[in-house]
Design brief:
There is one protein chain. With 184 residues, the chain is of the alpha/beta class. The protein has 10 helices and 5 strands. 49% of the residues lie in helices and 13% in strands. Strands 1, 2, 3, 4 and 5 form a 5-stranded parallel beta sheet that branches. Strand 1, helix 2 and strand 2 form a beta-alpha-beta unit. Helix 2 crosses helix 3. The longest helix has 18 residues. The two termini are 35 Å apart. The N terminus is likely disordered.
C-alpha cells in the first residue's frame, strides 16, 4: 500500500471541474461555472478564436469572473507516421466519424465544409465506411487534424501556441485495423 500511495497525486484543496463544450451556450456555461474547458475533437483556429474564446469570455463576464486560473484545453486528433500520406489517410477516420454529429456544424460550416459533411453523413446512412472516408477532403485534413511525420506535426501545432493552455493529442483511427492503431 505504501508503494502505491507514493505515486498518488497530492490531494487537491478543491477538485477542478472542466466542462467539455462545442456550442455557444455550453461554452458560456464553462466560462461562468467551470475551472476549465475541453474542446471537442473537431476544431479549427477560426473556431477557437471566433466562437470558443468569445463565448468562454462572455460566460466569465456574466459571472463576474476573469480568466485567471481558467484552463483552455484543446483536443486534436493526431496521427504520426514516417509516411505522411499514410498518416493523413488514417486521420480521415476522425473527421469521418465526428462530422456525422450535427453539433460540429458550428466548426465545419464556417470553413466551407458543408458539402463534404453532407456526403459523409449520406455515406454513414448507407453504412458505407469507405464512402465516408473518401468524402473527407484534403482541406478538411489540413484544418481539423494534425497528421504527418513528426516534423510535419510539430509545424502544424505551431499556430496553436499561446491560444490554449493545453493541447490534448490523441490517436483517432476509429475505423482502422487494430494493428494500424497500435502502430500509430
Amino acid at each position: 500500500v505504501q508503494d502505491y500511495a507514493r505515486f498518488m497525486p497530492a490531494p487537491y484543496a478543491q477538485i477542478p471541474i472542466y466542462l467539455a463544450a462545442v456550442q455557444s451556450r455550453m461554452l458560456q456555461l464553462a466560462g461562468s461555472h467551470a475551472d476549465g474547458w475541453i474542446s471537442g475533437p473537431l476544431n479549427t483556429l477560426k473556431y477557437l478564436t471566433e466562437v470558443a474564446q468569445p463565448n468562454l469570455q462572455k460566460g466569465m463576464a456574466a459571472a463576474g469572473r476573469t480568466a485567471t486560473g481558467f484552463e483552455c484545453c484543446v483536443m486534436k486528433p493526431c496521427v504520426i507516421h514516417q509516411d505522411a500520406k499514410y498518416a493523413r489517410r488514417l486521420a480521415r477516420n476522425a473527421i469521418a466519424l465526428y462530422a456525422t454529429l450535427p453539433y460540429y456544424d458550428i466548426v465545419l460550416q464556417p470553413m466551407g465544409f458543408t458539402e463534404a459533411t453532407q456526403a459523409i453523413r449520406a455515406a454513414m446512412q448507407r453504412q458505407d465506411i469507405p464512402g465516408m472516408l473518401n468524402a473527407v477532403t484534403e482541406e478538411m485534413i489540413d484544418a481539423l487534424v494534425v497528421a504527418g511525420t513528426p516534423d510535419d506535426v510539430h509545424r502544424q501545432l505551431e499556430p496553436w501556441e499561446g491560444l490554449c493552455d493545453l493541447l490534448l493529442l490523441y490517436c483517432p483511427p476509429h475505423f482502422a485495423d487494430p494493428a494500424e492503431t497500435k502502430a500509430n
